[in-house]
Every structure is written in C-alpha cells, then in structure tokens.
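Late entry, evening session. Most of the bench is empty. Finally got around to the prediction I had been postponing all week. Sequence below, unchanged from the version circulated by S.P.
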Amino acid sequence: MPLITVDGFRDDAFARLADDAPLPNGPVLVSLSRFRAERHALTARNAALGVMLKSEESPERLGDDVHRFSLIALEFPKFRDGRAFSWARMLRTRFQFRGEIRAVGDFLVDQIAYQRRVGFDAWEVAEDFALEDLHRAFSEIRNVYQPSADRRMTIRQLRAAL
C-alpha cells in the first residue's frame, strides 16, 4: 500500500515481517509478539526498528522499550474502532514518543485530520488516494475546541488572546 506523510508520498523504508519470516538487513516492522519473543536479537541489530500494535494492544505494553522504535504502526481493524486514536495520543503525550506513528488498516479520509491532531504523521492509504485528499483532510478543521498532542491553540485560548 502507498505510504503518505505530512510531506507527501514516500517509499516505505521498513520491511513488514511475518512472525516466522527471517530477519533481513535494514529497517523492519514486526508484531509486538515477535518483538517480545526476539527482543534481544532485534534490539542488537544496527537498523531502524518498528513495531505494529493491534488495536487491543496498548502502547503501555512496550514499557521502557518505547524509545527503541523509530516507527510505531497502529492498526485500525475497522474505521469504527477508535482505540488507535487514544494510543497515538498516549504515545505523544505520556511517553513523549518522537518517532513516526503510522495509521494502518481501515480508516476514513475524514478521520485523518483527527489522527493528525493526536499524533499520527504517516498513513498507509489505498492505491487511488491522492495528495489532494490529504490536503483536503488537513484543511477541514480550522479551529479546535480541545487541546491535543498537536498543541494547537484552542478557540478558548484564541479568544483570551484577543
């Protein structure tokens, strides 16, 4: 699937590995179960490491290893399942994660602006997704009511500044 970031389309540097696939050279994206099973071998490599969390897998399960990852991919198994929104915000605010947070799975274009607010900065999108779709999604929310991981000024703060 194509990968898009706030800067546009780009090649995915990470090889997504099945739990039984051999480890190649270079950056890899593994499941949480594989990371736990092969933690020592994966962290000893001299390459970027990413982990894929299923919607029921809280980032708290990463513990102190959270900062070992260059990429954390969060799954949307159905567009109605919003747990990944909470996980992204938790990663950005509580864990101070500065790596890439990627949305994968079944999400809607209409959700991208909200995903960006809570900390997502990359999306695996359908083949027919256009850069204009991303720009449209980002422009849909001009002012915000709640504070979030993006630290945008809320309407209340903007009014107080007047």
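Two things to note before I forget:
The longest strand covers residues 71-76.
The radius of gyration is 17 Å.
Will write this up properly tomorrow.
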